[in-house]
Amino acid sequence: MGLDADGTGSADAAGDDPPADPESVARTICLNLLTSRARSRAELADGLARRGVEDDVARRVLDRLAAAKLVDDAAFAEQWVSSRHRHQGLGKRALAGELHRKGVDRETASTAVDEIGRDDERARARELVDRRLPAMARLDHAVAARRLVGMLARKGYDAGVAYTVVREALAERDAAEDTLEALHEAADQDG
Q1: What is the tens place of the pLDDT at every residue in 87-112?
Q2: Is the pLDDT of residue 34 over 50?
Q3: CATH of 2-71, one of 1.10.10.10, 3.40.50.620, 3.40.50.700, 3.20.20.70
Q4: Which of 31, 98, 101, 156 could link 93 by a cystine bridge, Cβ 3.0 to 4.6 Å?
């Protein structure tokens, strides 16, 4: 017997198969959702509810999946934080918000987010600033600073990290420009 698009069982063309066991249907829905990426327990529960699975059936299936370590919010949160911080450059505040929207409890989310050390967060923020800085070469110092701090704020970095990283990056850019200008002046005087 196959599953319809809504995850419920359907009888074959001859109509000989009995209706599907609700727990089997719920388990199949969860496993299908888990094939694309890890999910929180709340995400799976929402998926089951959308498909019309009764709450007690959903709870039993989710409990069995958790016992089998296929559903683990702490592991999910750690993986989510690591991936989104590394690949998207998100800061702690944004990551905590995403985990909250995915139904991960505050304590579990906080534990996962706290795995990002202050130095790691600063280093990732600096990478983001360094990547954007060349496009801002012609901008006034204050305008570039405002745009860079805004970019970091949208990515979930706290103000202290954002201002410190941007100030350092712009100071280095200004020092490099001053050095280059001094070299040009020296070359003009020699020539």
Answers
A1: 999 999 999 999 999 999 999 999 99
A2: yes
A3: 1.10.10.10
A4: 156
